[in-house]
Structures are given as structure tokens and as C-alpha cells.
Design the sequence.
């Protein structure tokens, strides 16, 4: 960046630069993110900067972020901060995230947090996600989860996924899958498209399908 030579500026340019520099300093003092020189503020600007700093400090203390200085809070503001922190803790406990301190919850908040945790566990179990604790399910919930797990496994088997557990299928479901795979294999052999295992065809199916294994390329 080139250095600025003020001696080469006209009076109007120097004035415009001074005004812009002053405004930049005022903004820096108000937002608290940049270095500012409070000694260059007018009395009214200094008051506005003080108010902005107070508001910013109060917000930081309530949100638990940034630089919070409790010593600058009034008694009423300190009460608001305690209430905000309590609500944030209750929310963290209820949502199962953040820093939750169960000892700070009221009896009603504890029940809400326990109910929310139970519902999260039910959702995890129903969707086959991690962090599922089957022992915490009710009898009805466990039955519903078992049905959904079975349907999910059946779907995996139908799609040929590695997660399929054939041992969990009923005899009827297993037979249906065998029949479906036989039809797929026959159609693949018949059309000459897809994986074809001629050893699994019936004698009549063998006669109906051309043997392309000896076709020259």
C-alpha cells in the first residue's frame, strides 16, 4: 500500500480526509471490534460509545460469548443475565446439546429435559441411528421399533445391500426374495443384459434363453 503524503493534498482534500478519519474512529469506538482513540471523541460521541460498550457487554454476558465484564453490570442487568443463563442452560439440557448443568434445573425443567431425551432416543431407535438405547424404550415403543427395524432389514435385503440380515427374515419373506431373484436372473439371461447365472435356470428356461458365453467377440 502506498503511503499518503498529506503535503500533496489540497485544503479540501485534507478536510475530507480528516472528516473520514474521525468518522472511522467514532465507528470503531462504537462497535468495539477495532482499535479506537477515545481522546478524539467529542463529549456526545464519548457518551454514545459508553452506551454502546455497556449494551455490548450486557449482550455478551447474556449470551455467554465475547468478553463479559460482570463488574460493569447494574443489579438489574445482573439479574437479567442470570435469567438468560438459566434459560440457556434449560434449553441446552432439553436439546441435548451445549453445556447442560442438570443441577441448575427446576423440577419442571428436569421433566421437560428427560422427556425430550426420551423422544430423541425413540427417534434414534426408529431410524436405526447411533445412540439408541433399547433398554429405555417402553414396551409399546420397543414393539414399534422392532417392526420398523424388520421392515428396514427387509428393504435392505430386497435392494441387495450388505446390511441385509437374511436370518432375520420370515420364511415367507425369504421365499419371496428367492423368487424375485430367480425372476431377475431369468430376465437378465433372456435379455442378455445384467448379471446372468445360467446354472440357476430351470431346464425350460435354459432352452428359452440363448447361451452367449461362446459368442465370439
Sequence:
Amino acid at each position: 500500500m502506498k503511503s499518503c503524503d498529506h503535503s500533496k493534498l489540497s485544503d479540501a482534500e485534507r478536510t475530507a480526509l480528516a472528516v473520514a478519519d474521525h468518522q472511522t474512529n467514532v465507528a470503531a469506538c462504537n462497535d468495539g471490534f477495532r482499535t479506537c482513540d477515545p481522546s478524539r471523541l467529542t463529549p456526545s460521541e464519548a457518551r454514545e460509545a459508553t452506551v454502546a460498550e455497556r449494551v455490548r457487554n450486557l449482550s455478551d454476558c447474556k449470551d455467554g460469548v465475547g468478553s463479559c465484564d460482570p463488574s460493569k453490570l447494574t443489579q438489574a442487568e445482573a439479574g437479567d443475565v442470570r435469567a438468560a443463563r438459566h434459560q440457556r442452560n434449560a434449553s441446552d439440557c432439553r436439546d441435548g446439546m451445549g453445556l447442560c448443568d442438570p443441577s441448575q434445573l427446576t423440577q419442571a425443567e428436569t421433566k421437560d429435559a428427560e422427556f425430550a431425551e426420551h423422544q430423541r432416543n425413540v427417534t434414534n431407535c426408529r431410524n436405526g441411528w447411533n445412540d439408541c438405547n433399547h433398554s429405555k424404550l417402553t414396551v409399546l415403543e420397543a414393539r414399534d421399533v422392532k417392526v420398523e427395524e424388520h421392515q428396514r432389514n427387509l428393504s435392505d435385503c430386497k435392494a441387495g445391500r450388505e446390511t441385509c440380515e437374511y436370518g432375520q427374515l420370515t420364511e415367507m419373506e425369504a421365499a419371496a426374495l428367492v423368487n424375485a431373484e430367480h425372476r431377475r436372473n431369468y430376465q437378465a439371461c433372456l435379455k442378455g443384459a445384467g448379471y446372468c447365472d445360467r446354472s440357476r435356470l430351470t431346464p425350460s428356461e435354459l432352452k428359452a434363453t440363448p447361451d452367449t458365453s461362446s459368442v465370439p467377440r
